[in-house]
Every structure is written in structure tokens, then in C-alpha cells.
Amino acid sequence: MTDQKSKKTINQQQVILSGMQPTGSLHIGNLEGALRNWIQLQDEYEMFTCIVDWHALTANYKDPSDLKNRVFQIAVDFVSAGLDPEKCAIFVQSDVKEHAELHLIFSMMITVPTLTRLPTYVEKKDTLDSYGFLGYPVLQAADICLYNADKVPVGKDQEKHIWMANDLAKRFNALYGQTLVEPEGLFTKIPLIPGSDRRKMSKSLDNHIPFEFTDQETEKRIRTFFTDDQKLRRGDPGRPEQCPVYLLHQVYSPNETDEINSECKSGALGCADCKKRLTANLNNALAPIREKRVELLKDPDAIWDMLGNGASKSRVRAEQVMDSVRSAMKMKYRS
């Protein structure tokens, strides 16, 4: 990686690749777990942001009829949250066919036992046992290496997948000569965003707070949140460090956490009032996103045009990298 970095001039931006499956409207777990970081990084890197619809097929191949709507919704939410298509290329994975080509090449360079040892496969192999799911990390590596991305912003739980991309780039370079950047993870501290049932916030668990919720729907969902199971009524001393509502206060009520912590422990603050304070602060934080979302939904064609423009920009770089890949492999058969 040292040699590759030395080739970059001081004024050249490094390249970053980020991606997310199209699950429909995003929620605050997505916002705090990824989007906040991406929004900052778009000013520091040349950034490609991929909506990975092919990855989504691993679990939804039997009925992809809703995929178009889910792609649209996530694109709207990306921009609503603050991703700027003038600063980063936002595009759909399947619109850049070179993802599939590099995936195929990489698939020749990895063994099946290596893939079956990866934690994501071990965890889900009883429910998802297709070749596509087994090869998911290989396609993910192709997504990254196709843009010669220097960095990939992820949580530590994705470290193995960044290792896979780095390893495949190394293997390619060892076989065919220095061609691909060997990417590194850009690991950032991600705040824990619990759902209403204390588990990680997830749309599939219906414990989430999506951007598309109204203020009233947000209030209703927060009322369902578990709190400290030993604090049954106002006056009971609480344990804020064990309460999902307090964890959300740390994100959305940063100037009030000391007061909330103290009043919860003393019993002066009841759970209902604590939830009302969180509701007000969360709705206030989401207001600009929700307002932007309403505006964007008025012009669906503009969203698809944005994705098309992002794909065109991404395709230029992808074609350049694949041309280098084919040259290195001596697979450019016509001049």
C-alpha cells in the first residue's frame, strides 16, 4: 500500500467507496451508524456511494418486484440526510456492469473453504445457502476494488470483509503485477442505536424510527421503548446506563445527559417524562431531513436522473480500472 500511496500527489484526493443495501426508507440507526460519517467524508475524499441492489438479491431473489421502490426510497433518504450528488457519485450497483465482471474474476481467486469460514456465512448459512450468498464477500470486494478505493468507511464488525478486499487485491497484484489499490478500512466509532426492544435497531425487527415517520408516529414509537426494568414508577432510582432511551439521549440530547442521568438515578425523572424529552429532541433533529424528504418526493424523475448521473460518473472510473485489469491479465484480445 505504501508504493500506491506514494504515487498520489499531495493535491490528489484519495478515493472512498461506501455502500448500503436498498431496504426502503432509512431509520436513525442508518443515520448515526453510517450516514453521518459519509456526509463528513464526502468533503474529504473523492467518494462513490453505491446502492447495492445485487447484494439485496441474496435474500430477495424470489420476489424483487419491490426493489425499484426500495432503491428510490434509499436514494431520497441519502440526499435528505445530507449526501450531495455534486460532491459524491450516488448510483445503483447494477447500473455499472463492471461490478459483475470483476466479481467473476475475483471468484476464480478465492477458495470455497475460505468463504465458508467467514462469520456472516456461518451465522446465516441455515437460512441463506445460495452460491450468491456464499460469494457475497467476493462481490463486496469487487465493489471496492473496482474504484481502486483507498478507504472504506465501516464499523469493526465489517473488518473481515475489508480484509477480503485487501487480500484479493494483493493476490491479483502478485499474479499480474501492481494494478489494484489494496484498500483499507476506515474504522470509526459508531454510537449504539438501540431499537424499542433493546436489540439493535432494524427495519426487519420493526423496532426502528424511520425518517418517514411523522412527529406523532415518532412519539408513539418512543412510548413503546423498553427502559430500566427495575424502575417501575417515578421515584424509583433508575440505572440510565442500562436504558435504551438514555442511550438515545446521549445522541440527541447531548447537552442534557448529565441532568437526565442525575435525575434518573435519584428518581426525580420518570420514564414517561424522559421519553417526552427524547421525542422532542429527536423530532427537532430530524425536522430538516423530513422537510427535505418531502421536497424531493415531489419530483421523482429528478432522483432517477441523479442516480443516472452518478452511474455515468462511476462508470468512467470503473471502465478505467477494468481496462487496467484486462491489460494486466493479457485479456485485451483486440487493439
The count of strands amounts to: 5
Biggest sheet strand line-up = 1-2-3
Mean pLDDT: 92
Helix/strand/pairing category:
mainly alpha
Second rung of CATH, namely the architecture of the largest domain: 3-Layer(aba) Sandwich
Number of domains: 2
Structural features:
single chain; 335 residues; mainly alpha; Rossmann fold; 2 domains; 3-stranded parallel sheet; 15 helices; 53% helix; elongated; disordered N terminus
Brief summary:
The strands form two sheets. Strands 1-2-3 form a three-stranded parallel beta sheet. It has helices at residues 2-6, 28-41, 53-60, 67-81, 98-107, 112-116, 119-124, 131-134, 136-145, 159-176, 215-223, 244-252, 257-266, 271-296, 300-328; strands at 15-20, 46-51, 88-92, 151-154, 184-187.
Give structural notes.
The protein is mostly helical. It has two domains: 220 residues, Rossmann fold; 82 residues, Tyrosyl-Transfer RNA Synthetase, CATH 1.10.240. Helix content is 53%, strand content 7%. The protein has a three-stranded parallel β-sheet with strand order 1-2-3. A two-stranded parallel ribbon has the order 4-5. α10 links the parallel β4 and β5. It is elongated, with a radius of gyration of 22 Å.
Provide the fold topology.
Elements: H1 2-6, E1 15-20, H2 28-41, E2 46-51, H3 53-60, H4 67-81, E3 88-92, H5 98-107, H6 112-116, H7 119-124, H8 131-134, H9 136-145, E4 151-154, H10 159-176, E5 184-187, H11 215-223, H12 244-252, H13 257-266, H14 271-296, H15 300-328
Parallel strand pairs: 1-2, 2-3, 4-5
Helix pairs in contact: 4-14, 5-9, 5-15, 9-10, 11-14, 12-14
